[in-house]
Amino acid sequence: MKVLVSVRGKVVELQDKLFEILRDSEVGTTNWLLANAVLRHGNQLSAIPIQELAESCHVSEPTVSRFSKLLGFRSYIDLKKEAKKLGDQSDLHLFHMNKPSLALLKDRPQQFLESYCQQISENLLHAASSLDFNKIDAFLAELHQTKRVFIFGTSTSLMLAEILQSNLANYKKIVYAGFNQDQQLNHAQNLTKSDLSITISTYGNFLHQYPATAKMIADSECRNILITQNAGLQETYMFDDVIFLSNKNSTETGTYSMLLGIEYLVRRYAVLFKV
């Protein structure tokens, strides 16, 4: 099965690992200082010698080397090469905006916000009218009946996964969500035939950012379901079924369709399966 590998995906992986270290470490500890320094330098790290980074963080050069290996690199040189791509994402790509919208935001911010709110409103109404309610109920029944359910995603999709996880727990339904790439890869490696895999991806970026995990999920024997608002996504062949939360891909406001859909899913689950 062919899965596209995104260079951006590797950068996301590095950035995720650095933020994970910041979250899990105490302020001022060695790993916290180094992760903070790499994030602050961004793509400029490529021009910083190991000695300079070590001195700025009050650590030794071998400590910097060990930190590089902790991030998955063979050496600090390899870390510097990957760091060249940190912070190089354009505003258009980062915010899923087109050039006219970006120009409007720059020159007439109030008009941009009014237009953006109108887009969100129209998109939510359209999404609500396009949901397949019977299919969603069947999906929720499958989720309810399956003992082990694993959720996969990246970026804002992990926020949606957390909404599912925390809300379903109130109704004694425990689902498993990995919040970093290593954890998600481990979940994919441990999928069994009786499990249910749910991939949440607003635009389909998960398939390109985490291709090894996506392929492992697709090759597993478990039921594999995608939740997305991107009705034009070509890689739906990788899944046994797809829950579309809209019948069109809204590049600028698709996240709101996803949030509406996920909020509906947990509320519908509550009224159907409340103990």
UniProtKB/TrEMBL annotation:
It comes from the Bacteria. GO terms for molecular function: carbohydrate derivative binding; DNA binding; DNA-binding transcription factor activity. Coiled coil: none annotated. One of its GO terms (biological process) is carbohydrate derivative metabolic process. It holds the Pfam family HTH_6. Residues 139-275 form the SIS domain. InterPro entries: Homeodomain-like_sf, HTH_RpiR, RpiR-like, SIS_dom, SIS_dom_sf, WH-like_DNA-bd_sf. Residues 14-90 form the HTH rpiR-type domain. PANTHER family: GLUCOKINASE. This is MurR/RpiR family transcriptional regulator. It comes from Trichococcus shcherbakoviae subsp. psychrophilus.
